[in-house]
Amino acid sequence: MSETSQTGQAAAEVVAVIPARGGSKGVPGKNVAQVGGVPLVARAVRACLGATRVTAVVVSTDDQEIAAVARRAGAVVVSRPPDLAGDTAGSEDAVLHAIEVLYSGHTRRVDVVALVQCTSPFITSEEIDGVVAAVLDGADTAFTAARFHGFLWRPEPDGAVAVNHHHKRRARRQERPVELLETGAAYAMRGPAFLAKRRRFFGTIRAVETDPSRVLEIDEPADLERARVLAPMLDTPTGRPGRADVDAVVLDFDGTQTDDRAWLAADGSEQVVVHRGEVMAEAALRRAGIDVLILSTETNPVVAARAAKLGVECLQGIDSKGEALAGWCAARELDPRRVLYLGNDVNDLPCFSLVGWPVAVASAHAPVRAAARAVTTVPGGHGAVREIASWILGKDLLP
User: Which H or E run includes 371?
Assistant: First the structure.
């Protein structure tokens, strides 16, 4: 049912349809393949649900597994008939079928139809809202596009032919007209006209520009692997990981869990200051199923005592932190790309180059901060471990 706006007028009925058939040959099981720990179809559903202008989210599929994943993500599922699920069936056919199934015989009309492709894993709610807004503002069709500066060539029997430039007079990028690449991620069409014309492009067409760094369509296995590598960066614009990004946390000790100072007694023993809140943080990480390791180059009873109190594994007296970390990951069959390493000094850099989430404390040395993917807001010894636990677990106050 359409909602009513604060002005008393009925809000536009905007239906987002995600075509997701089960018979992909290039990437078998593609639409339920995980990127960033989330199936592709669920990623698309989440983006649609987050779009403020979308009033209904529908997945059209012929596959029971895709249907189950889509329902769990919060979408309405329309079963697609076999004649619309083959290699030659177009996306428009699936969208038209879904709209007709859901709205045939109903008095309310669909004002805007959005076609959202789950093979574009980094589509955002803002992009979906953008194409819908363009139609509500007067366009008949809108689509996501990114600025394109490449020189196109077309192969011919006698050689390559320039397409969007003259090979004898190639202008500088600043002098060339703006060109846009259709991303294939999202489209929006004026509802009644789309149902009548039965195609996505008609009338006044508007391109809605998006971030080129997020443009990726998954058509073959290499695209899926590329998406999985990019997900930790593109899924968290702040550079901070969530639970879906991390399987293990490895912690330096001096300068990370301490403020890098030590009190020396006359007998040569050391005392350091640690943050009490980090006991709670590391316990919460372990309860969430995340492996925790303390890795230290020195052999120091303080480090061993701290690890025992926290109930975490400890490796100390290590000549090469990088080699020790690589061995630890291999022994536990951990993907280093899903490991967060928290450090502060240059001897942590070999570990930074190994893991997917190198994080520096705010007090880290400049080369370490420069090499980090994220930097905590607090210095070592002042709750940095608690801060990264909050990033991963998605809550500020840990139990």
Answer: helix 366-371
